[in-house]
């Protein structure tokens, strides 16, 4: 009789906590912390290895300070590789932790752990990875039991291990000074060990155990840094999906947390994943993704409130009906909002540098057009061959004009840097070029310089730089009468001077001391002198 009762109890327990083949998300996202942008990491299969791919923080559409930072949607970069399949990933800040089941040289099972850090190079959205020669080894985890998952926080790295058999002990291990230490666990969690899923959260981590009814249990762990001691861990338990709306059956369900929201990921047929928002009351479908490969990796970008999905598409396998086969292996990516389910990116991943081929093409086109216009104007020249200057005036020396232009350019650069909020000295760094910030500052500087120059030359006949070096702009007349430059003349000369600098620089080598800008606008840059004093050396062909 006792044997029969014991068998019934064991059967009941086994039904409650049936072991399921886990469908790993193959990814990890760093929980948002201290307003820092989040990173995500994915493990993707290649021909003979597994790639640890880095998803850098995304570029904001409208950053608060107006400065463009971060990578474009779809950006994915190779960070490291492994010869064995990763079993779990965890991330915090710029660090990623990877665990994989392996065997040592004696054939004994071992559960290895590595780490890698992304380091901002300071050049645009480019990142380097330390150690440069690959992943750095940490203390191996116990090899017995199933690795439920890992989670990282400011308190350190934790790993959750549970045996696949019913009524197994669930262990929460914390990595302290190179050694794994056990942390306290809830009393009733052991019988759910075979069903547990690990979810990294902003407070620590959550363990979710879906049951056969479409509901589930959840235990949230909050970690507080214990300095040199083990972190203080506080557990709170509850239920998820009281309305029993979670998928049931043989297909396993995975969970991630984005922006404090729990999201379930469930297979719904070949190549299909259904994403749903989950809370204590129930779940609601967020999005249905189709055309995925079985090894698709999913990770959250917590601070950006989005999910990243990536998978490797083999050579010659079209993703959509009617799509031509691709040559070579392609990493497909989908990025979607975790709040609305709206797809933000759906295309092959890209690993563009901060300056894309399109940017270089546009820059080349602008340079060709500018050079063509300058060449036409230089060859055409002006119609004036001789001018008469009013008494007491002579053409300004090239050196004086150059100093005046440098002063005006510096003033325009200061104005532009203040308007953009970019320190002047920072403009000399490579990062301002590759992020496009330098282009914005120069564009604003050109507009500001032309506007200030036109305004001051129309009102006073002098720009700020010309006033400081003692020269002015006048309108040339056939009879040599003094005349102030008209509005159209100062507008045109400043527009050409600031957008086509070579036309103004020709005054440095022209024997007449007049640039093509002067000739085309019928103006002259002069200095005043006392006719009764020693007469200055006249300019040739003045």
Mean pLDDT: 81
Which geometry do the CA atoms define?
Answer: elongated
**Which strand-content bin applies to the residues?**
25-35%
Helical content stands at 10-25%
Kindly state the number of beta strands.
Answer: 28
Radius of gyration: 34 Å
- Given as residue ranges, the uncertain stretches (5+ residues, pLDDT < 50) are 1-23
State the CATH class of the largest domain: Mainly Beta
End-to-end Cα distance, whole Å, is: 124 Å
Total number of domains: 2
Number of helices: 9
In CATH, the architecture of the largest domain is: 6 Propeller
Q: What does the main sheet amount to?
A: 5 strands, antiparallel
Which structural class fits the helix and strand makeup? alpha+beta
- CATH topology grouping of the largest domain: Neuraminidase
Write the layout of secondary structure elements.
Elements: H1 2-16, E1 27-29, E2 40-45, E3 50-55, E4 77-82, E5 88-92, E6 95-103, E7 109-120, E8 127-130, E9 136-141, E10 146-153, E11 156-162, E12 170-176, E13 179-183, E14 197-200, E15 204-210, E16 216-224, E17 232-240, E18 254-258, E19 261-267, E20 273-278, E21 283-289, E22 297-301, E23 306-313, E24 330-337, E25 343-348, H2 357-380, E26 393-395, H3 398-420, H4 430-434, H5 437-459, H6 464-469, E27 472-475, H7 487-499, H8 501-505, H9 516-521, E28 523-528
Antiparallel strand pairs: 1-2, 2-3, 3-4, 5-6, 6-7, 7-8, 7-9, 10-11, 11-12, 12-13, 14-15, 15-16, 16-17, 18-19, 19-20, 20-21, 22-23, 23-24, 24-25, 26-28, 27-28
């Amino acid at each position: 009789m006792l044997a029969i009762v014991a068998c019934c109890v064991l059967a009941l327990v086994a039904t409650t906590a049936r072991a399921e083949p886990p469908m790993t998300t193959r990814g990890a996202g760093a929980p948002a912390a201290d307003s820092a942008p989040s990173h995500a990491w994915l493990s993707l299969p290649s021909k003979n290895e597994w790639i640890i791919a880095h998803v850098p923080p995304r570029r904001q559409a409208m950053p608060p300070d107006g400065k463009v930072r971060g990578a474009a949607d779809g950006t994915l970069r190779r960070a490291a590789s492994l010869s064995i399949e990763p079993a779990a990933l965890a991330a915090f800040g710029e660090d990623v932790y990877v665990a994989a089941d392996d065997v040592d040289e004696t054939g004994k099972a071992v559960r290895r752990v590595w780490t890698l850090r992304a380091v901002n190079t300071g050049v645009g959205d480019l990142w380097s990875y330390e150690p440069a020669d690959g992943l750095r080894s940490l203390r191996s985890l116990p090899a017995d039991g199933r690795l439920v998952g890992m989670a990282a926080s400011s308190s350190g790295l934790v790993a959750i291990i549970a045996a696949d058999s019913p009524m197994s002990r669930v262990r929460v291990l914390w990595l302290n000074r190179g050694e794994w230490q056990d942390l306290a666990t809830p009393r009733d969690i052991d019988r759910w060990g075979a069903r547990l899923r690990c979810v990294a959260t902003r407070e620590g981590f959550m363990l979710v155990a879906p049951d056969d009814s479409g509901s589930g249990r959840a235990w949230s762990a909050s970690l507080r840094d214990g300095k040199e001691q083990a972190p203080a861990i506080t557990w709170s338990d509850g239920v998820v999906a009281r309305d029993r709306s979670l998928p049931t059956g043989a297909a396993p369900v995975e969970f991630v947390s984005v922006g404090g929201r729990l999201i379930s990921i469930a297979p719904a047929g070949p190549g299909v994943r259904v994403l749903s928002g989950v809370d204590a009351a129930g779940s609601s479908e967020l999005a249905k993704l189709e055309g995925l490969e079985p090894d698709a990796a999913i990770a959250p970008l917590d601070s950006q409130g989005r999910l990243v999905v990536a998978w490797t598409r083999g050579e010659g396998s079209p993703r959509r009906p009617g799509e031509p086969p691709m040559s070579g292996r392609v990493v497909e990516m989908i990025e979607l909002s975790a709040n609305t389910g709206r797809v933000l990116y759906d295309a092959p991943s890209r690993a563009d540098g901060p300056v894309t081929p399109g940017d270089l093409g546009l820059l080349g086109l602008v340079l060709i057009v500018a050079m063509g216009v300058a060449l036409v104007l230089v060859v055409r020249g002006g119609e004036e061959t001789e001018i008469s200057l009013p008494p007491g005036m002579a053409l300004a020396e090239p050196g004086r004009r150059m100093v005046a232009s440098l002063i005006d350019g510096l003033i325009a650069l200061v104005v532009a840097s203040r308007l953009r909020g970019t320190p002047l000295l920072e403009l000399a760094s490579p990062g301002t070029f590759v992020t496009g910030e330098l282009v914005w500052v120069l564009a604003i500087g050109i507009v500001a310089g032309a506007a200030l120059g036109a305004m001051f030359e129309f009102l006073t006949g002098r720009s700020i730089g010309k006033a400081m070096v003692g020269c002015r702009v006048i309108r040339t007349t056939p009879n040599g009468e003094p005349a102030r430059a008209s509005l159209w003349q100062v507008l045109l000369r400043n527009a050409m001077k600031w957008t086509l600098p070579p036309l103004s620089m020709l005054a440095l080598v022209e024997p007449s001391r007049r640039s093509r800008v002067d000739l085309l606008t019928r103006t002259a840059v002069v200095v005043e002198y006392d006719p009764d004093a020693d007469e200055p050396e006249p300019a040739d062909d003045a």
